[in-house]
Design goal:
Layout: H1 8-14, H2 19-32, H3 40-48, E1 55-60, H4 66-72, H5 77-86, E2 88-92, H6 100-113, E3 117-121, E4 124-125, E5 134-135, E6 138-139, H7 140-147, E7 153-157, H8 158-163, E8 176-177, E9 188-191, H9 198-211, H10 224-227, H11 238-242, H12 253-257, H13 275-278, H14 334-342, H15 350-359
Length: 371
């Protein structure tokens, strides 16, 4: 696997990906990473260099394989080619050719060599010595400790691997925990979500190849490029929130017209994720676009929160790129626009403040306080 000295761009060309498509991919990844446009050439340069593909060990524990499905459903040729051609996936129970003892030998040889990246999907049971998840006679606890011993980093994918997910739901009979609760000696990057978005996985890998490090993380070890903004700020229905236009019942006029889902329990005002920009299924759509409120699937313990309970709003910013549904009463000067931009962390204008006050529900604590 490591013998080829072809660059990523050359390998992609062999798969029928044109130079133009390759450059478009590099620009898209740079945008996903929230890098300045001027950094796109550096991404191109890094991916054009012939280099040893970093070996990757992908472990599955208490999971539904949803993150593997997301990984395999990368349908844009450029995204799929970069993922498959830039890493050496030495061990993955679902997609690898070997099985049984041969598969375990593949795992052992990579782990013993060291310098690899461990991807973990699924939570790890700790109760009763971890007996509730065993593979080849070894507990998930033992496999994780061994696989990370000489690794350079761990990428936890999906809500189960990051925060315990569904197996951790009260009463948590198996004592399930996330990776960062156990791994302390090497960096742990959390790509939460149920499942993780493969676009963010691709961007994370490209960032590592470009800069030799992982991107800046938030306090939950999630990359800021994916979790630096609340969904509400860039939601395509945000203008309806500002205008006080809300869905009040499934199938009502507002629902048919695509109005704001806040009063139906949307967690967009407290959840951080880049769903509005990267979307799902190769950018086709996302839950809010399909008419369902956000359930904050990238947040800790989201399974234990009421899906349709209205959340309190503590912060809201002007939308970054979606227009208003109403024309301003009078033209806004350049100076006025600059003033509005300077107060980006505040609720601007009496109209928005009134909309927030009207939109607030019963006064319960936020459903996603962990954000």
């Amino acid at each position: 696997m490591f013998g080829s000295q072809l660059t990523i761009q050359q390998r992609m060309a062999q798969r029928g990906v044109s130079r133009r498509e390759f450059l478009k991919f590099c620009s898209a990844v740079a945008a996903t990473l929230a890098l300045p446009k001027a950094m796109a050439p550096q991404v191109v340069y890094a991916l054009e260099q012939a280099a040893r593909r970093p070996p990757v060990v992908w472990l599955e524990f208490q999971d539904c394989a949803g993150d593997t499905e997301s990984f395999l459903r990368a349908s844009r040729p450029t995204a799929a080619d970069v993922i498959l051609d830039t890493i050496s996936l030495d061990y993955h129970e679902t997609v690898m050719a070997p099985s049984g003892k041969q598969a375990e030998r593949s795992l052992r040889s990579t782990v013993d060599a060291g310098g690899h990246i461990v991807v973990v999907e699924g939570s790890i049971p700790t109760k009763d010595g971890g007996v509730y998840c065993t593979i080849a006679g070894r507990t998930a606890l033992d496999i994780l400790a061994d696989a990370t011993r000489k690794a350079v980093a761990v990428i936890a994918v999906g809500s189960c691997a990051t925060f315990g997910g569904l197996p951790k739901v009260t009463p948590n009979p198996t004592g399930a925990v996330g990776v960062m609760d156990l791994v302390k000696h090497i960096p742990v990057v959390n790509l939460s979500g149920c499942p993780m978005n493969v676009v963010n996985f691709t961007a994370l890998v490209v960032h590592y190849l470009t800069f030799g490090t992982f991107p800046a993380l938030d306090r939950l070890n999630r990359p800021l490029f994916a979790h630096g903004q609340i969904i509400h700020n860039n939601c395509e229905r945000r203008a309806h929130f500002d205008a006080g236009e809300f869905v009040l019942a499934w199938g009502d006029e507002g629902h048919r017209k695509g109005w704001c889902l806040y009063k139906m329990g949307c967690k967009g005002p407290v959840a951080t994720f880049n769903c509005p920009s990267v979307r799902w299924n190769d950018g086709v759509n996302w839950p809010i676009g399909a008419g369902h409120p956000c359930i904050a699937c990238a947040a800790p313990d989201f399974f234990e929160r009421e899906a349709y309970a209205v959340v309190d709003i503590h912060e809201t910013n002007p939308p970054a790129f979606y227009p208003s549904v109403e024309k301003p009463a009078e033209p806004i000067s350049a100076g006025g626009a600059a003033t509005l931009g300077a107060v980006g962390g505040l609720i601007v204008g009496a109209g928005i403040a009134a909309a927030v006050a009207t939109a607030r529900g019963s006064g319960k604590a936020p459903a996603e306080s962990a954000e």
